[in-house]
Amino acid sequence: MPLPEPKAARQPLHHRNIQIRGYKRDDGLFDIEAHLVDTKSYDFNLAAGVRHAGEAVHGMWLRITIDRTLTIVDADAAMDATPYSGYCEKIAPEYRKLVGLAIRPGYLRQLKELFGGVRGCTHVSELAAALATAAFQTLAGQRAQDPARRPFQLDRCHALDATGPVVALHYPRWYQGTGPVDPAGQSEEH
User: What share of the chain is helix, strand, coil (3-state, %, to 5)?
Assistant: First the structure.
């Protein structure tokens, strides 16, 4: 369902497009690739010069290569467009420090430690965070789910609350609620 109609007329100012794609490689690894592009709908005055309407202010790329354990085995960053050409792109090689990190609890904290403040690029670091959830989506269906292990996604969002009706209906073995669940998917306790 889309958002409701805006309550007032408005003019577009900023457009951010983030595309993320996941790939299975022939060598058994997986590439997750992100591209961020920021544009303005008007001529934008930067300290380093004018960016004309529709011209990219930011054009950032990040690719991570992961194995089946969600460990990053390779990483590359690149920048097509930056507000301070000749300076911003110098940080791109630092994103090789992602190699060896595992996408599991603590990953976002490690990103902040490695790339927070002047140690990184705000936009590339944003992509590194977004690639984590995309990595899970990329591997979905690529690994056999062990029926004896609790599905990792439980208790990671409100719909998959282990005490709620979705878990009761679709993952009954792992349901932790106390109320019965009706066929329409509503638990009596919620």
Answer: 30, 30, 45
Q: Is residue 182 a contact partner of residue 189, using CB atoms and an 8 Å limit?
A: no
Helix (H, G, I), strand (E, B) or coil at 45: strand
Q: What are phi and psi of 114, to 5 degrees?
A: -75, -40
Lowest mean per-residue pLDDT among 28-37, 127-136, 155-164: 155-164
What is the model's pTM? 0.82
pLDDT, tens only, 135-190: 999 988 776 667 788 877 888 888 989 998 988 888 888 899 887 776 565 545 54
Is the pLDDT at 71 greater than 60, yes or no? yes
| CA atoms of 30 and 23, how far apart (whole Å) | 6
CA distance 38 to 47: 17
4/144: higher pLDDT: 4
- Retrieve residue 76's tokens: 């590359």
Supply the DSSP string of 10-35, one letter for each residue: ----EEEEEEEEEEE-TTS-EEEEEE
Q: Is 30 exposed, middle or buried (0-12, 13-18, 19+ CB in 10 A)?
A: buried
Q: Are 51 and 57 in contact (CB under 8 A)?
A: yes
